[in-house]
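Researcher: Structure for this, please.
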Amino acid sequence: MNTQTLYFLLQKCGSLEKLKRIHGKAVTLGLLCSKGQHLPCKLLDTYTKLGSPVDAQKVFNHIQNPDIVSWTCLISLYLHTSQPYKAFSIFSHLFHSGLRPDSFCVVGALSACGHTKDLSNGKIVHGMVFRFELGSDPLVGNALIDMYSRGGAIQVACSVFKTMETKDVSSWTSLLNGFIKCNYIESARHVFDEMPLRNSVSWTAMISGYVQGDVPIAGLQLFQEMRAEGKDWPTVITIVSVLSACADVGAFDLGSSVHGYVNKTNLDLDVTVNNALMDMYAKSGALVLAQKIFHEMLKRDVFSWTTMISGLALHGRGRHALEVFSDMSNSGIMPNEVTILSVLSACGHAGLVVEGQSLFQKMVQCHGIKPKIQHYGCMVDLLGRAGLLREAKGLIEHMPMKADSVIWRSLLSACLVHRNLAMAEKAGKMIIELEPDDDGVYILLWNIYCSENRWEDALKTRKAMRDRRVKKKPGCSWVELNSVVHEFLAVDSVHSLRADIHCVLEAITEQMKDLY
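Model: Predicted structure, token format:
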């Protein structure tokens, strides 16, 4: 058995047990002590892919005089295991060992700096790019754009892009992603429109950017364009982003058609896609379809269970949500912070105060999860919905962190429902103190004062709103027709069918007058 045979076995290796046998055989035959480092690097890489970074580091430690390839493999190991600081430390050791950096290890170092938003060290590596004349490689240019974008220096990223000798589709996509990371959606779209060539990654980046930037309608429209063009196939990430947008605006028909595409392309075997489908159906009111997908899934992760619990909570099925949570615990999957949030939300919607309090008290003891401000917010909502306003206010006062506007808004809503206007006034003032530009709170306070004939306080609230130049945000609604989602704003004057819609509304109004 020689190096080539072991190398071939490593390529086919799919389990840690087999890998360790191959490793042992290589040690026995003395193949890791030879000058060539291809076999040790392959071992290191395979250990990384199989989730055993400690063994991978041990392999590297036994390499005599590691070359640039071995060092780069180790950098990739720590990037792969989400340890960017360690990855950059390895790059520093490589440089101080006297080796000349190449494009691949520099890309690894820039990736580490990008993930930690370390512009200082990123600029040092950029200097090395000039010193060792590595700038002609598009991979290096793309990595520089990504590093500067992650650090918020989008203008520098643009300068790098402009000076690149060779720009491929990845270069354009890197700049596109950079603008999205910095929340410059319009600039990102400009880059997208200027691209000489697009692929599924660039389409997905722009669609995801719209969805993450709270512009789901534009994301859905772009997806329709992608399908109409027919050159690039949607990826798993594309599908998940589109389903997320459908969930946000309740685009049931379009979401269903995407589901059909998923079934045709065998993407229904992907756990992430199924989770997104469940979320879309649950938020679109089709809880039965969400449950059907959940029960038919061959494999479920923590997000699958959490999505199902969240969907049941949304539909007021608190008891059922608790049953699913119990099944999850029995299956051996540990809940995460979001799971607990979903269960607490389910208890709140169903009025299960005792069960919610019990879970909240056992979070640390049973699940090893320390309550965060979101969990306290769920408890305030739970108590408020049940009319336990004093208990809710007491919990806010004894929280280990300062309550945010979300928690005070939750208490305000509960106070209005249960007609405790004095406490509602206090909650409203706290929200204004934390978010002085929140138009909704001023209106609620004004309504409270008017209902109690406190006209002077009502006028003061209006005056404060004017002095701070707070304007009431227009209401927004979506209507899906023939798989196309139409967005309407209050006092809308830009919709393409505005005149026709108003004409129909006027006709309906006249008919109603005749009836009454």
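Researcher: Any notable elements?
Model: The chain is about 70% helix and 0% strand. The mean pLDDT is 85.
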